[in-house]
Amino acid sequence: MGEKQKRAxxxxxxxxxxxxxTAGQMMTGQRAGPGAQIEKAAAECxxxxxxxxxxxxxxxxxxxxxxxxxxxxxxxxxxAAERSAAEALRS
Length: 91
Hints:
The radius of gyration is 20 Å and the shape is rod-shaped. Helix content is about 90%, strand content about 0%. The relative contact order is 0.21. It starts with a helix and ends with a helix. It has one domain. It has helices spanning about 5-45, 50-90. It is an all-alpha fold. The model has no long low-confidence stretch (mean pLDDT about 90).
């Protein structure tokens, strides 16, 4: 691969990495919007079955926590990939 092709590939990688970081930010936004709505609705115990609510609450919290963690990971992965690709462009 020639120098020109390497630079073009690195530039595409920077753009892709930015898109990945943006996707992580969007996931965070979804967690703050629809995810919070799910949390609020569940707090009202809409099922009327206390045993179900207890089981659901534990699983719900695991899913919402995983959502937050995954969003942060995707964003940080995009940031790290962007730094790496930008460094490749500089060298």
